[in-house]
Amino acid sequence: MNTSSHAMPITDSLRRGALALALLAASVSVLAGTLTPQVAQVRDRWAEVNYQVPKDKREAAFGTLAKQAADARKAEPRSAEALIWEGIVLSSYAGARGGLGALGLAKDARADFEQAIKLDPNALDGAAYTSLGALYYQVPGWPIGFGDDKKARELLKKGLQVDPDGIDANYFYADFLRDQGDYAAAAAALEKALAAPARPGREVADRGRREEAQAMLAQVRKQLASR
User: Which DSSP symbol is given to 147?
Assistant: First the structure.
Protein backbone atom coordinates (compact mmCIF):
# COMPACT_ATOMS: atom_id res chain seq x y z
CA MET A 1 0.00 0.00 0.00
CA ASN A 2 2.07 2.91 -1.18
CA THR A 3 0.43 5.95 -2.69
CA SER A 4 3.71 7.46 -3.81
CA SER A 5 4.07 4.55 -6.22
CA HIS A 6 0.60 3.86 -7.51
CA ALA A 7 1.93 1.61 -10.24
CA MET A 8 2.66 -1.04 -7.62
CA PRO A 9 0.50 -4.19 -7.90
CA ILE A 10 -2.39 -3.83 -5.49
CA THR A 11 -1.56 -7.05 -3.65
CA ASP A 12 2.04 -5.97 -3.02
CA SER A 13 0.88 -2.52 -2.04
CA LEU A 14 -1.65 -3.82 0.45
CA ARG A 15 0.75 -6.35 1.92
CA ARG A 16 3.30 -3.60 2.47
CA GLY A 17 0.58 -1.59 4.11
CA ALA A 18 -0.07 -4.37 6.55
CA LEU A 19 3.47 -4.21 7.80
CA ALA A 20 3.28 -0.52 8.34
CA LEU A 21 -0.25 -0.67 9.58
CA ALA A 22 0.39 -3.39 11.94
CA LEU A 23 2.75 -0.94 13.27
CA LEU A 24 -0.10 1.35 13.97
CA ALA A 25 -1.10 -0.65 16.90
CA ALA A 26 2.17 0.21 18.41
CA SER A 27 1.44 3.86 17.87
CA VAL A 28 -0.74 3.83 20.96
CA SER A 29 1.47 5.04 23.77
CA VAL A 30 -0.85 4.75 26.76
CA LEU A 31 -0.80 2.84 29.99
CA ALA A 32 -2.78 -0.38 30.04
CA GLY A 33 -4.98 0.95 32.81
CA THR A 34 -6.49 3.65 30.59
CA LEU A 35 -8.22 1.09 28.35
CA THR A 36 -11.17 -1.14 29.13
CA PRO A 37 -10.08 -4.76 29.67
CA GLN A 38 -11.71 -5.78 26.38
CA VAL A 39 -9.85 -3.16 24.34
CA ALA A 40 -6.60 -3.85 26.20
CA GLN A 41 -6.91 -7.52 25.22
CA VAL A 42 -7.25 -6.53 21.56
CA ARG A 43 -4.19 -4.29 21.83
CA ASP A 44 -2.05 -6.96 23.47
CA ARG A 45 -3.17 -9.70 21.09
CA TRP A 46 -2.40 -7.42 18.13
CA ALA A 47 1.24 -7.16 19.25
CA GLU A 48 1.47 -10.93 19.59
CA VAL A 49 0.03 -11.56 16.13
CA ASN A 50 2.03 -8.85 14.43
CA TYR A 51 5.40 -9.69 15.94
CA GLN A 52 5.25 -13.29 17.11
CA VAL A 53 2.89 -15.22 14.82
CA PRO A 54 4.50 -16.65 11.64
CA LYS A 55 3.68 -14.63 8.51
CA ASP A 56 1.78 -17.47 6.86
CA LYS A 57 -0.61 -17.64 9.81
CA ARG A 58 -1.16 -13.93 10.37
CA GLU A 59 -4.10 -13.49 8.01
CA ALA A 60 -6.18 -16.03 9.90
CA ALA A 61 -5.05 -14.67 13.26
CA PHE A 62 -5.93 -11.10 12.31
CA GLY A 63 -9.29 -12.29 10.97
CA THR A 64 -10.11 -13.78 14.35
CA LEU A 65 -8.84 -10.69 16.14
CA ALA A 66 -10.98 -8.46 13.90
CA LYS A 67 -14.09 -10.16 15.32
CA GLN A 68 -12.82 -9.60 18.85
CA ALA A 69 -12.11 -5.94 18.05
CA ALA A 70 -15.61 -5.52 16.60
CA ASP A 71 -17.12 -6.90 19.80
CA ALA A 72 -15.03 -4.49 21.88
CA ARG A 73 -16.17 -1.57 19.72
CA LYS A 74 -19.84 -2.63 19.90
CA ALA A 75 -19.58 -2.78 23.68
CA GLU A 76 -18.23 0.81 23.73
CA PRO A 77 -19.71 2.48 20.61
CA ARG A 78 -18.72 5.96 21.80
CA SER A 79 -15.17 5.00 22.71
CA ALA A 80 -12.49 6.55 20.50
CA GLU A 81 -10.01 4.02 21.89
CA ALA A 82 -12.14 1.04 20.84
CA LEU A 83 -12.58 2.53 17.37
CA ILE A 84 -8.85 3.16 17.00
CA TRP A 85 -7.95 -0.38 17.93
CA GLU A 86 -10.55 -1.87 15.62
CA GLY A 87 -9.14 0.31 12.84
CA ILE A 88 -5.59 -0.82 13.60
CA VAL A 89 -6.60 -4.48 13.53
CA LEU A 90 -8.52 -4.05 10.27
CA SER A 91 -5.55 -2.24 8.72
CA SER A 92 -3.22 -5.06 9.73
CA TYR A 93 -5.70 -7.65 8.49
CA ALA A 94 -5.84 -5.84 5.15
CA GLY A 95 -2.08 -5.97 4.81
CA ALA A 96 -1.94 -9.67 5.63
CA ARG A 97 -4.81 -10.50 3.30
CA GLY A 98 -3.88 -8.51 0.19
CA GLY A 99 -5.98 -8.13 -2.97
CA LEU A 100 -9.19 -6.21 -3.54
CA GLY A 101 -10.74 -7.63 -0.39
CA ALA A 102 -8.01 -5.88 1.56
CA LEU A 103 -9.07 -2.54 0.14
CA GLY A 104 -12.52 -3.02 1.65
CA LEU A 105 -10.95 -3.65 5.04
CA ALA A 106 -8.82 -0.53 4.64
CA LYS A 107 -11.96 1.51 3.95
CA ASP A 108 -13.59 0.14 7.10
CA ALA A 109 -10.45 1.06 9.06
CA ARG A 110 -10.57 4.58 7.61
CA ALA A 111 -14.16 4.96 8.84
CA ASP A 112 -13.12 3.86 12.34
CA PHE A 113 -10.27 6.37 12.49
CA GLU A 114 -12.43 9.21 11.17
CA GLN A 115 -15.11 8.48 13.77
CA ALA A 116 -12.50 8.31 16.52
CA ILE A 117 -11.16 11.73 15.53
CA LYS A 118 -14.68 13.18 15.76
CA LEU A 119 -15.13 11.72 19.24
CA ASP A 120 -11.69 12.56 20.64
CA PRO A 121 -8.81 13.60 18.34
CA ASN A 122 -6.29 13.31 21.19
CA ALA A 123 -7.26 9.77 22.21
CA LEU A 124 -4.29 7.40 22.56
CA ASP A 125 -1.90 10.26 21.93
CA GLY A 126 -3.38 11.13 18.55
CA ALA A 127 -3.12 7.54 17.24
CA ALA A 128 -6.14 8.01 14.96
CA TYR A 129 -4.35 10.81 13.08
CA THR A 130 -1.19 8.73 12.70
CA SER A 131 -3.07 5.58 11.71
CA LEU A 132 -5.26 7.41 9.21
CA GLY A 133 -2.24 9.18 7.76
CA ALA A 134 -0.52 5.84 7.29
CA LEU A 135 -3.54 4.50 5.43
CA TYR A 136 -3.54 7.46 3.05
CA TYR A 137 0.06 6.96 1.94
CA GLN A 138 -0.03 3.15 1.92
CA VAL A 139 -3.30 2.55 0.06
CA PRO A 140 -3.24 2.89 -3.75
CA GLY A 141 -4.62 6.15 -5.08
CA TRP A 142 -7.50 6.78 -7.49
CA PRO A 143 -8.99 4.96 -9.38
CA ILE A 144 -8.12 1.86 -7.33
CA GLY A 145 -8.21 3.27 -3.82
CA PHE A 146 -8.37 6.43 -1.72
CA GLY A 147 -4.63 7.00 -1.24
CA ASP A 148 -3.51 10.63 -1.12
CA ASP A 149 -0.01 11.77 -0.17
CA LYS A 150 -1.12 15.33 0.62
CA LYS A 151 -3.71 14.12 3.11
CA ALA A 152 -1.20 11.64 4.52
CA ARG A 153 1.34 14.37 5.28
CA GLU A 154 -1.30 16.58 6.90
CA LEU A 155 -2.59 13.79 9.14
CA LEU A 156 0.84 12.48 10.10
CA LYS A 157 1.87 15.99 11.14
CA LYS A 158 -1.27 16.29 13.28
CA GLY A 159 -0.30 13.03 14.94
CA LEU A 160 3.14 14.47 15.68
CA GLN A 161 1.60 17.62 17.13
CA VAL A 162 -0.26 15.49 19.66
CA ASP A 163 2.64 13.09 20.36
CA PRO A 164 5.88 14.75 19.17
CA ASP A 165 8.20 12.26 20.89
CA GLY A 166 6.17 9.10 20.28
CA ILE A 167 7.81 6.09 18.65
CA ASP A 168 5.03 5.41 16.18
CA ALA A 169 4.18 8.98 15.24
CA ASN A 170 7.82 9.45 14.28
CA TYR A 171 8.21 6.01 12.69
CA PHE A 172 5.29 6.46 10.33
CA TYR A 173 6.27 9.99 9.43
CA ALA A 174 9.75 8.66 8.65
CA ASP A 175 8.33 5.91 6.46
CA PHE A 176 6.28 8.49 4.56
CA LEU A 177 9.32 10.76 4.11
CA ARG A 178 11.36 7.82 2.84
CA ASP A 179 8.67 7.10 0.26
CA GLN A 180 8.89 10.75 -0.78
CA GLY A 181 12.66 10.45 -1.23
CA ASP A 182 13.43 12.80 1.67
CA TYR A 183 16.01 10.50 3.25
CA ALA A 184 17.68 13.08 5.49
CA ALA A 185 14.41 14.03 7.15
CA ALA A 186 13.42 10.36 7.37
CA ALA A 187 16.67 9.55 9.17
CA ALA A 188 16.07 12.35 11.68
CA ALA A 189 12.53 11.10 12.38
CA LEU A 190 13.78 7.53 12.82
CA GLU A 191 16.43 8.64 15.27
CA LYS A 192 13.72 10.40 17.23
CA ALA A 193 11.56 7.27 17.14
CA LEU A 194 14.42 5.18 18.50
CA ALA A 195 14.92 7.70 21.31
CA ALA A 196 11.26 7.51 22.34
CA PRO A 197 10.56 6.49 25.94
CA ALA A 198 9.46 2.92 26.65
CA ARG A 199 5.73 2.34 27.03
CA PRO A 200 4.75 0.38 30.15
CA GLY A 201 2.90 -2.79 29.23
CA ARG A 202 3.86 -2.47 25.55
CA GLU A 203 7.16 -4.35 25.64
CA VAL A 204 6.38 -6.65 22.71
CA ALA A 205 5.17 -3.80 20.51
CA ASP A 206 8.07 -1.53 21.50
CA ARG A 207 10.65 -4.19 20.76
CA GLY A 208 9.13 -4.95 17.36
CA ARG A 209 8.81 -1.29 16.41
CA ARG A 210 12.37 -0.52 17.41
CA GLU A 211 13.64 -3.39 15.29
CA GLU A 212 11.65 -2.03 12.33
CA ALA A 213 12.96 1.48 12.93
CA GLN A 214 16.56 0.28 13.14
CA ALA A 215 16.21 -1.69 9.91
CA MET A 216 14.67 1.28 8.12
CA LEU A 217 17.33 3.65 9.43
CA ALA A 218 20.05 1.37 8.03
CA GLN A 219 18.35 1.47 4.63
CA VAL A 220 17.93 5.24 4.73
CA ARG A 221 21.55 5.79 5.70
CA LYS A 222 22.62 3.58 2.82
CA GLN A 223 20.60 5.76 0.46
CA LEU A 224 22.21 8.90 1.87
CA ALA A 225 25.72 7.42 1.58
CA SER A 226 25.20 6.53 -2.08
CA ARG A 227 24.49 10.12 -3.05
Answer: B
